[in-house]
Write a structure and sequence with these properties.
By secondary structure, the protein is an alpha/beta fold. The protein has two domains: about 10-135 and about 290-300, 3-Layer(aba) Sandwich (Rossmann fold); about 140-285, Aspartate/ornithine carbamoyltransferase (Rossmann fold, 3-Layer(aba) Sandwich), CATH 3.40.50. It is about 35% helix and about 15% strand. It has eleven helices and nine strands. The protein has helices at about 15-30, 55-70, 90-95, 115-120, 140-150, 170-180, 200-205, 240-245, 250-255, 275, 285-300, and strands at about 45-50, 70-75, 105-110, 125-130, 160-165, 185-190, 205-210, 220-225, 260. Helix 1 (about 15-30) crosses helix 5 (about 140-150) and helix 2 (about 55-70) crosses helix 11. The termini are close together.
Length: about 300
Amino acid sequence: MNRDLLGIRQLSQAQITDLLHRSDGYFRHLDSTEPFPDYRLLHGRTIANLFFENSTRTRTSFELAEKRLGATSISLSMQTSSLTKGESLIDTINVICAMKVDCIVVRHSSSGVPQLLRNNLPPHIRIINAGDGAHEHPTQALLDAATLLEQLGSLKGKRIFIVGDISHSRVARSNMLLLKMLGAEITLVGPETLLPKYVEEVFDVRVRTTIGDSLHKADAVIALRIQQERQSRSYFPNLSDFRLRYGLTPIQLSDTKAFILHPGPVNRSVELDDEVVDSEKSLILRQVRRGVAIRMAVLEWLFEV
């Protein structure tokens, strides 16, 4: 039976633990100054990276993960594909798959596109969700968990705050699902207009509309980028107002031991002040490095059956 990675819900806790464990070995090599081993686990496999949205971290880390495992990797700029000439999404994907592609890594602005591909492509072609709309971003949640585990040892009972634009964030959704499975206590913080209705009940998380003095309780804080490209209207007065109410500053974090994470790209002086991004508490670059290791682990896992 072939595997896909469409979302966190499809993974069991045992599978999540397995993926995190696999990534640790790759991360040790990535965190070393020694030459990277010549892995050939995916020799002969062809992987197509189809990014319908702009991406730096996710796209580059998938490309590096694929090449370091020995796969043939192609990355297509879908903004200049035949889709712009009127070809349907499925027809475009079928054309690509006809060239003997074994796996598709897809990012799309519409929720559900990875599942749409799964429903329309032959079962032997693996599908990896690299972010679909405001739905999910499973590999980001896995790398966030790996980064936190490196610092905290265990997530059981740890208090993780997710701050910012919750409604439009696929990162928040995947992290709520995964970190809860690993035993973390999740608190969402953001403007009421950017907090989905019923999120407390659906995801079993705490919700706050102000930061106040609550950050001293946190073990880690995941700050989210304002998803202005997904917003059809204004959900708060302006970015200066958002920074004042929800931006993380050195003063706010002076009384906390919390580590700081961010999926990137960071809007400096909006979600995070410069001093926070560059502080010892910041794990942002560790997340980037963990991202390559996690995506190597996911690719290995997908092709072992």
